[in-house]
Structures
1.
Amino acid sequence: MAANFSLFFAFYVLTPLLPLYLSEEFGATKDVIGLVLSGYTITALILRPFSGYVVDTFPRKQVLLICFTAFAIFFAGYLAASTLLLFTIVRTLHGGPFGALTVANSTVAIDVLPSSRRNEGIGYYGLSNNLAMAIAPTIGIFIYHHTHSFSLLFWLALIVATAGLIVDATVKTGNEELRKSSLITIHSSLSLDRFFLLRGWLLGVNMVAFGFCFGVLSNYLAIYSKEAMGITGGTGTYFLLCSVGLILSRLQGGKALREGRLTFNAGSGMLISLVGYTLFILMPTLGSSKFFTFHSSLFTSFGYYGSALLIGLGNGHMWPAFQNMMINMAHHNERGTANSTILVSWDVGMGLGILIGGIVAEHFGYDTAFWTVAFVNALGVALFFLRTRQFFLAGRQR
């Protein structure tokens, strides 16, 4: 959990500020920003299926440490990139070790959890992501507003990632020989199912929809808030409240996970998130209506920050439920593949959100881009209740 916190802190401390960095340092337009930032996610999703196979085949701790080392080193590349082209290359390549590392770290976490507490344990493990998301953007924005130094942020990310590598080096894993022997017995030849868990494909489709929504929100929140709502200093607070919702949901949903009520957690989380995204998008319209003329600023702020709490609460219920559902669709020695599949699906959605969100914003404005988010989220919710829930109940392995 400590290493995972370091990993995501290094990631999130830069995420909300990179669009500003590209705009201020290189004069990049909205659609170019979307293209540059989407490269990271695209590389991660390309590498993740292979990462699942490697994690399931080779000693997991060795794979974990190699991936973490590469992930940390790439932050130095941001400091060296002096042109938009060089930055694009470094950022795109950086997605590779990030994609592999998240698979390796979460798979090792599952290995060290007792089977009787696995559903609940994965939920609590995810708290490290949420804490990083709560703290990192706020710290990053605070540092930027007081120093206007992106170099300092890149150095901070490098140092924190290196600390995570050191922590992971202390992890003790289980019996690798037993796992590899079992793997050889069940999978004597390579197949597509070794890179993507085909039995869980519909769960993956659902995660693409939700990843799309969060991809648009996390990357264009600061710019949209400033242009549509006139909120210039609330991005850090928004991410903080979103993470508070994530943390509360993990604590609140722990009992349901412990009891194996995965579809309940997933369904309730999706509905809460849908309300949150819709509230966020409606704020500029409702705040400017005649009914709220006298208190438009207060109303807009209340809805803006309230949506953060709801989105965090919903995603916090949904994510561990979907991860556990995907793992339950796999055999015990396909955990790496199951993890990579759910993460690949999220990355596909994130990448599409960043790319399409930037293009739609450039040609139709950020209002249209965020209404697209509401539409895609609603489609994901409908798919789950009409098909995915039954698909999981019929196909789970245990």
2.
Amino acid sequence: METIPDGFKGEKAIVTPYNIRDLQSKNSITRQLYVTHIGYYPAAKYHFRQRNDGAPENILIYCEKGSGWIEYKNDTYKLATQQLFIIPANAPHSYGSDIHEPWSIYWIHFKGNNVNMFKKIIGKVITLYDAVNSRYSDRIMLFESMFRNLEMGYNTDNLEYISFCLMYFLASVKYLPQYREIKNAKVEDVIQKSIHFMKDNIENHITLEDIARNAGYSQSHLITLFIKRTSFAPMEYYNSLRIQRACSFLQFSDLQIKEIAFRLGFYDPFHFSKSFVKEMELTPKEYRKRYRENTGTS
């Protein structure tokens, strides 16, 4: 079977000169971690590399699409979409693209005194599992930032910046939950926004459609996010808020039970009482009697 190491349509690659690597190995910042080779091979059919003595650098292969394989320490590892593998420096290895679904890969060769900071993710398949907060594009932007700055030249500021980007790129893999937390915060903002909307409209009988429209999400997506964050569907949560408000009315106002029911958008006093018992395990009348007596409210 035909195999090729490079030369793919649309590929891009940069290999730093040896004198630049010497400079990187001595600079107080870049010597921690630095890039020696970087590139992207799209749809790399027949891609194959074999290094019987390994490479002087660690080799990161990030499979964006398709699939391939890596042989390392007498084991074969399949690498699929959104999976990553780092081959340690000086380790004999080979790797190649799947013949039927050729991979598109981002790859980086790197060295440095602090490689061991990331030994947890070296020599194993790392799956960057899919989620609403995946941040795949942010990680690719980090790669592009390293590549573009290397293209601009090898001045010290560029090389130091690239080293920091490389650390962040590797950290985004090692500390995946922390890396994705910024997206969690955005999701959390949506949930908080929805809860505030519910509280502001507690007496307006809003629907799931109203809540989703205010959040800017489809109803199904909002339900998924809401359950993940609160363990309740949006309307369940909204109903719980209505019952909380009903408790306040029962304890601290003289509104009749049927007035509270209609004020909070229940169909009738029976519907209100049934929902209240389900939530509080007391009827509205029992709740009012018990908690007014406890607070001394007449």
